[in-house]
Design goal:
Belongs to the short-chain dehydrogenases/reductases (SDR) family. By secondary structure, this protein is α/β, with parallel strands linked by helices. It contains five helices and seven strands. Helices cover about 35% and strands about 20% of the residues.
Length: about 200
């Protein structure tokens, strides 16, 4: 933390619906945001590319927290799934977030925090959501276990939102689910970044 009490927080996926709300909330609290996305922001990186993550954090240098709001999976039925679909889903949202932590660890401050993202499908499956359920459960398992092993009092948590109110194109795929607004998800990130919890799956549904 700087002498003026401002935290330097890296937001990955800053141009997405959730990422924009997280950036907005951090700015409202008066802290410094480093915006990262694949094609825009202060820095560019692809979470599926470990080398780009390593280069990203080497360029940014010292910081206090990482909040990730990115990660993609393929939505298909079990019988339609290909090896490539599965490899993409695991490589992007699961390994991408694991590598995000691994690449950032040498640069994050003592007592800093990581916030990753999973989703409601780890508990409530939908048709065609096998990969999402698998990957989300993997992310949550990683967070729960890594919390015991991270050095220097570094915390790690995972945000698990339901389908977003803003993502109207997905609503029919989530029958009976009550959508949540992006700003509410951002408040869960606020809890993870500025609170004291670690190893938690913070649900927003």
């Amino acid at each position: 933390m700087s002498n003026n009490g401002k935290l330097k927080i890296v937001v990955v996926g800053a141009n997405g619906t959730i990422g924009r709300e997280v950036v907005k909330r951090i700015n409202e609290k008066g802290h410094q945001v480093i915006e990262v996305s694949r094609t825009s922001g202060d820095f560019q990186a692809d979470i599926q590319d470990k080398r780009s993550l390593e280069e990203l954090f080497a360029k940014i240098g010292h910081f206090d927290a990482v909040a990730n709001a990115s990660g993609s999976v393929v939505f298909k039925g079990v019988e339609q799934f290909t090896d490539e679909d599965l490899a993409f889903s695991i490589g992007n949202k699961l390994m991408g977030q694991i590598n995000l932590v691994r690449a950032a660890l040498p640069y994050i401050a003592d007592g800093g925090s990581f916030t990753l993202i999973s989703g409601i499908l780890s508990e409530e499956p939908i048709l065609g959501g096998v990969a999402a359920s698998l990957v989300n459960s993997g992310v949550e398992g990683f967070v729960k276990a890594a919390a015991y092993e991270l050095p220097r009092a570094i915390r790690i948590n995972c945000i698990s939102p339901t389908v977003l109110a803003e993502s109207k194109g997905y609503h029919d795929s989530f029958p009976g689910f009550i959508p949540v607004e992006g700003w509410k998800v951002a408040r869960a990130y606020e809890n993870s970044i500025f609170g004291i919890v670690t190893g938690k799956v913070i649900k927003v549904y």
